């Protein structure tokens, strides 16, 4: 795990229902690839402190995710809570139904995502990245390019989050993660087409190349084109 993404997801819960928000944060970490299948969640005491919830609330949330098939608890010296190697398949709610439920929130979410992620690409290109940050981007890019249809959305999410991470802004990373989660259910309802994945991977290559070359304008333009394509695809399936 990368520390900044870890911190962005496992930040203190806000107002409302602590149990529901704790479940949401843990799911966010899993679905965005911050904690990958087979990896261990942070230790219970540490995680409860970081989320600012009681250990009872955290245990209830973990139990709910265990029942849903996302995690399992292991005992012993090397025990803990681990993300399952095989994650539950996303429920196939019809895309149009999800869009109706989102209402005006769909356009709001797409606009917010566009503003955040184009800005993140530009900001990442403006920084002098460390060797570790460059390696992180390249590994996330390679993982996404090699991903199968089942895992593609998760690796795609992880790559986009990695771009936000290397801006050096925890607040931006958190905002990108939240914006992505608003659209995840709708994206899961859209069929993955080989042609679209190939094109998406080519666009990812262009974005990362521009960032590594420090070309802010090109990074912003490449990300804008990529997000515009996703929005067009979504609208196409909804009309």
In brief, what are we looking at here?
With 239 residues, the chain is mainly alpha-helical. It contains eleven helices and two strands. Strands 1-2 form a two-stranded antiparallel ribbon.
Keywords:
WH_DNA-bd_sf; 2 strands; 239 residues; TF_FadR/GntR_C; mainly alpha; WH-like_DNA-bd_sf; single chain; 2 domains; 3% strand; Arc Repressor Mutant, subunit A; two-stranded antiparallel sheet; FadR family transcriptional regulator; 11 helices; Four Helix Bundle (Hemerythrin (Met), subunit A)
Topology:
Layout (H helix, E strand, L loop, with lengths): L2 H7 L8 H14 L12 H8 L3 H13 L3 E4 L5 E4 L11 H8 L2 H22 L4 H16 L5 H14 L4 H19 L5 H19 L3 H23 L1
Antiparallel strand pairs: 1-2
Bin the helical content.
Answer: 55-70%
The shape, in one word, is globular
**Which CATH first-tier class of the largest domain would you pick?**
Mainly Alpha
Number of beta strands = 2
Strand content: under 5%
Count of discrete structural domains:
2
Q: Numbering strands along the chain, what is their spatial order in the largest sheet?
A: 1-2
CATH architect. name of the largest domain: Up-down Bundle
Main beta-sheet strand count, sense and barrel state: 2 strands, antiparallel
The pLDDT mean sits at: 88
CATH superfamily of the largest domain: GntR ligand-binding domain-like
Discrete helix count? 11
Flag low-confidence runs. Answer: none
Could you please describe the fold and organization of this structure?
With 239 residues, the protein is mainly alpha-helical. The protein folds into 2 domains: 81 residues, Winged helix-like DNA-binding domain superfamily/Winged helix DNA-binding domain (Arc Repressor Mutant, subunit A, Orthogonal Bundle), CATH 1.10.10; 144 residues, GntR ligand-binding domain-like (Four Helix Bundle (Hemerythrin (Met), subunit A), Up-down Bundle). It is 68% helix and 3% strand. The chain has 11 helices and 2 strands; from the N terminus they run H-H-H-H-E-E-H-H-H-H-H-H-H. Strand 1 and strand 2 form a beta hairpin. It is globular, with a radius of gyration of 18 Å. The chain starts with a helix and ends with a helix.
């Amino acid at each position: 795990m990368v520390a900044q993404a870890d911190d962005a997801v496992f930040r203190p819960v806000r107002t409302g229902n602590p149990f529901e928000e704790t479940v949401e944060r843990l799911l966010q970490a899993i679905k965005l690839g911050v904690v990958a299948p087979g990896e261990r969640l942070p230790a219970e005491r540490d995680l409860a402190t970081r989320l600012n919830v009681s250990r009872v609330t955290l245990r209830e949330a973990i139990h709910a995710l265990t029942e849903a098939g996302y995690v399992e608890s292991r005992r012993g010296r090397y025990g803990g809570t681990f993300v399952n190697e095989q994650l539950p398949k996303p429920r196939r709610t019809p895309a149009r139904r999800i869009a109706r439920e989102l209402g005006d929130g769909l356009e709001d979410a797409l606009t917010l995502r566009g503003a955040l992620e184009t800005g993140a690409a530009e900001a990442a290109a403006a920084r002098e990245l460390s060797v570790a940050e460059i390696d992180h981007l390249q590994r996330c890019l390679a993982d996404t390019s090699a991903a199968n249809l089942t895992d593609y959305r998760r690796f795609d999410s992880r790559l986009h989050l990695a771009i936000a991470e290397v801006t050096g802004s925890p607040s931006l990373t958190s905002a990108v993660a939240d914006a992505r989660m608003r659209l995840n259910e709708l994206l899961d309802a859209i069929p993955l087409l080989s042609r679209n994945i190939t094109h998406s991977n080519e666009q990812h290559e262009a974005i990362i190349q521009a960032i590594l070359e420090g070309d802010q304008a090109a990074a912003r333009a490449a990300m804008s084109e990529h997000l515009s394509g996703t929005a067009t695809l979504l609208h196409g399936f909804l009309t």
